[in-house]
Design goal:
387 residues; alpha/beta; Peroxisomal Thiolase, Chain A, domain 1; nine-stranded mixed β-sheet; 18% strand; binds coenzyme A
Length: 387
């Protein structure tokens, strides 16, 4: 159905516990994106900018997008902050695609950012909690790990799946993260390590959880018609989809399926005019190991209850039939909330251009990213191609 937009440059900071503050992180990611444009780009050519961020810890809750223009060296550019919790980055990409698609802008900057590690544990819990249902779930003391722990318990019982399937998601993603120089955790773990790790919210232990992270990522998104001015190998965005669901999981008919992902996927596939079998690999929102299994199923790549088997038989490994999270995912790469959706697109940009070095997949031609806000209250799905 044709290309809707094209990524012509992408930048990424290291993810982890970092010295740099939010401004420095934004500047590094944008500078790297600008430097990555093969044929060069003038910053003045950027006509619009979007910043995906939660504003964790209370950092610049109002008008944060002005800081993006400032640090990007793009004075005067119209900027908008986009906030959809952990899906802020994916939602910012969607806004950028729409800006170029409607002929408004030829070149748009998208950045995702979060600085999470410079606050006390109590404030961290508060700021993680603000994106869940604050009337019921939070007042009952539920954290995100708690909500996903309930979902995981239900999933394992409903489908008669063993906890090894969750552990294998962590093993695979840590193995991929070990090959990603930007990842927070660049170390391998075994199923035994995962099983023996301290419990966080049963059945989820430490290695079933994403960490708390600092980091930023940035993309330059052009209209398909102007993309080749910037590079001979743009990565095209062919479909974007978005969906939402009730904020509180208790209002949903099913705990173990995310309607927001399913709606977003249907829209993205319809817009791109491709089918599941055309997709070479997935970058999904594995904030907890159970979330990767749900994503594979809700995106339509496995029937309910079968993604664990696919994980255990190696299908989702880098050398498997459908690699999932070759960059280490949120689990090992880290999850600076607003940066995650943009970071997923950064991995796609590298992989589809054959530039992912040690973790390069074998000749991928199309990819899909899924970025989720909270426990499935919002979701974005994006489909990309090259060539
Ligand atoms: N995976 C692997 N190792 C982890 C880890 C994770 N998710 N989180 C922390 N660690 C490691 C640290 O590197 C540290 O190792 P070290 O002792 O070798 O230095 C050790 O575990 C303790 O780290 P600490 O930061 O004190 O852990 P914590 O107990 O305060 O926090 C979690 C651990 C899992 C509770 C925390 O990372 C968390 O809340 N994660 C979920 C974040 C979240 O909900 N995001 C939104 C998703 S929707």
């Amino acid at each position: 159905m044709g290309h809707r937009a094209a990524i012509v440059g992408a930048g990424h900071t290291r993810f982890g516990v970092l010295e740099e503050g939010p401004r420095a992180l934004l500047k590094s990611a944008v500078d790297a994106a600008v430097a990555s444009v093969d044929k060069g780009v003038e910053r003045a050519a950027v006509g619009e900018a979007y910043l995906g961020t939660l504003g964790f810890g209370g950092w610049q809750i109002g008008n944060a997008s002005a800081v993006l223009a400032e640090e990007a060296g793009m004075p005067g550019v119209p900027t908008t902050r986009v906030e959809n919790a952990c899906a802020s980055g994916g939602t910012a990409i969607r806004a950028a695609v729409r800006a170029v698609e409607h002929g408004d802008r030829d070149l748009v900057l998208v950045a995702g950012l979060e600085k999470m590690t410079d606050v006390s544990n109590a404030r961290r819990r508060y700021w993680l909690g603000v994106s869940g249902d604050t009337e019921w779930e939070r007042s009952a003391g539920l954290t995100f790990a708690g909500v996903y722990g309930l979902i995981a318990s239900r999933y394992l019982a409903q489908h008669q799946v063993g906890a090894d399937a969750l552990a294998e998601v962590a093993v695979k993603n840590h193995e991929n993260g070990a090959l990603n120089p930007n990842a927070q955790f660049q170390k391998r773990v075994t199923r035994e390590d995962v099983r023996k790790a301290p419990r966080v919210a049963d059945p989820l232990g430490l290695y079933d959880c994403c960490p708390v992270s600092d980091g930023a990522a940035a993309l330059l998104i052009a209209s398909p018609g102007s993309a080749k001015k910037f590079t001979d190998t743009p990565v095209y965005i062919d479909g974007v989809g978005a969906g939402s669901d009730t904020l509180a999981v208790q209002e949903r008919p099913e705990l173990t399926r995310f309607g927001a992902t399913r709606w977003a996927a249907d829209e993205a596939f319809h817009a791109a005019g491709v089918s599941r079998s055309d997709i070479s690999f997935l970058e999904v929102h594995d904030c907890f190991t159970i979330a990767e299994l749900l994503a594979i199923e809700d995106l339509g790549f496995a029937k309910p209850g079968t993604a664990g088997g696919m994980t255990l038989d190696g299908t989702t490994r880098r050398d498997g039939r459908l690699p999932v999270n070759p960059d280490g995912g949120l689990k090992a790469k880290g999850h600076p909330i607003g940066a995650t959706g943009v970071s997923q697109a950064y991995e796609v940009f590298l992989q589809l251009r054959g530039a992912a070095e040690a973790r390069q997949l074998s000749h991928p031609s199309r990819a899909l990213t899924q970025n989720v806000g909270g426990a499935g209250a919002t979701a974005n799905v994006t489909i990309y191609s090259v060539g």
